[in-house]
Specification:
By secondary structure, the protein is α+β, with helices and mostly antiparallel strands. The protein contains six helices and eight strands; from the N terminus they run E-E-H-E-E-H-H-E-E-H-E-E-H-H. A hairpin with a 2-residue loop joins strand 7 and strand 8.
Amino acid sequence: MSGYLGSFVHQVDAKGRVALPASFRRGSESEGFILIQVHEDALSLLPHSSWRPIEEELRELVRKQPQSRARILGLTASALEVSTDKQGRILIPDRMRELVGLGREALFVGALNKIEIWAPDRFEEKTRAPDTKFDRFIESIFA
């Protein structure tokens, strides 16, 4: 798999279940995912293969900087393992949906090695603001 690309809007049902886009499920069904809030406005969904190196880096950070332990505990305390059900849905707990403002719709965004889950309006607000530094940087990548 080359990474997660694209974006898809899916309905969140009354129980907090939402279908993972089929193109994001391909190759990850048996592996499962870690659902975690790393960024203020979105949830991150990482396949176990992407989570393992991050987990190692977090362990190393605690070894080298013990003062980081509390922040890492705060991050991992709300994380959970999720897998798709027979209909290809994952469950996003109420508390996690509330943290990022998810309502009846969830926007799944491919973010290379992970999937981000956004409230569609928050994603639009965050990504439409101009950024001239980024524009120059991205031009050098795609030149």
